[in-house]
Design a protein that fits this description.
Layout lengths: L2 H47 L4 H15 L3 H11 L9 H26 L3 H9 L4 H31 L11 H12 L3 H30 L3
GO molecular function: transmembrane transporter activity
Membrane topology: Multi-pass membrane protein
Keywords: Amino-acid transport, Cell membrane, Membrane, Transmembrane, Transmembrane helix, Transport
């Protein structure tokens, strides 16, 4: 690649930036929505997998196994293109959020379940001996400690979601990747817009990693 080609790539990346930056909030919105909706759903799935009721454990286990065992792209297609055949038609945004939320919930549930199980049985028994109910033991003793254990994995899931939002471009959502593709269709210069999109993903991920590390240090100090 000669100097003239490098200049062309740089210029095309710079020219694509306004459109890509305009689409960046959509990418962040998808990731945050999936995380905020996936966390409570993942928590419920984790509790179901720890339940004493066998049927509840089996259903939640099948859900987690199916989501983790199939590609996210297939899940997006099932939600957006498959559900209309069952009488439920969704907008691209709703379909993308639902698919990402279900995917995030399955992975988050495993993180939460492992964090809960990492808290020793002795601490639960100590809380019970003090007269606390099971729900109080979970809320006051188990969950605060489990949150510290789960924090790195939860943060990694959010970072992964930011990158996974690129897949909703296949259902016509104009997020970061789709915006880059539209710029390429307009200019016929592929490398610059893709490079600019990659740099934006990198900056977002690096910023989230920085926040993650600061939160981990704060937890290590016990607030």
């Amino acid at each position: 690649m000669n100097l003239e080609q490098l200049q062309l790539v740089f210029q095309s990346a710079v020219n694509a930036l306004p459109a890509l930056l305009k689409a960046t909030p959509i990418t962040l919105g998808f990731a945050l929505a999936a995380m905020l909706l996936g966390l409570p759903l993942g928590f419920l799935v984790a509790l179901s997998r720890l339940s004493r009721f066998g049927a509840l454990r089996r259903v939640s286990s099948v859900f987690v196994s199916f989501i983790r065992g199939t590609p996210l792209l297939v899940q997006i297609f099932m939600v957006y293109y498959g559900l209309p055949s069952l009488g439920l038609t969704l907008s691209p945004i709703a379909g993308g959020v639902i698919a990402l939320t279900l995917n995030a919930a399955a992975y988050l549930s495993e993180t939460i379940r492992a964090a809960i199980l990492s808290i020793g049985r002795g601490q639960r028994e100590a809380g019970t001996s003090l007269g606390l109910t099971d729900s109080q033991v979970m809320r006051l003793i188990v969950l605060p400690q489990a949150a510290r254990v789960a924090l790195p994995s939860l943060s990694n899931t959010l970072i992964g979601l930011v990158k996974d939002t690129s897949l909703v471009s296949v259902i016509t959502v104009v997020e970061l990747l789709r915006s880059a593709q539209l710029e390429i269709a307009r200019t016929f210069e592929p490398f610059g817009p893709y490079l600019a999109a990659a740099l934006i993903y990198w900056v977002i991920s690096s910023a989230l990693e920085l926040v993650q590390h600061r939160l981990e240090r704060r937890y290590a100090r016990g607030f």
